[in-house]
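Re: that chain you flagged

S.,

Sorry for the slow reply, it's been a week of failed gels. I finally had a moment to sit down with the sequence you sent. For the record, here it is as I used it:
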Amino acid sequence: MGEYDEDEKRRAAAKCECCGEIGIVQIWPDGQRKPLGQSAFCDCSDPPLRVLEEDLDAGDDLP
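Prediction finished late last night. Pasting the structure tokens below so you have them in one place:
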């Protein structure tokens, strides 16, 4: 992945730790994660989202 300005929002794939739903989130400079283009990521209340790209090494596949 390329370099990004730490003052800008970025996009990433994320997975809900409760139900396993995968979607795209915006990551704000303060670390807050919000679903991209929708008000809710999944039907879980306050879902814990794990950003998938942070857990990958080069060449790994998505879970």
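What I noticed first: The longest strand covers residues 10-16.

Talk soon,
D.
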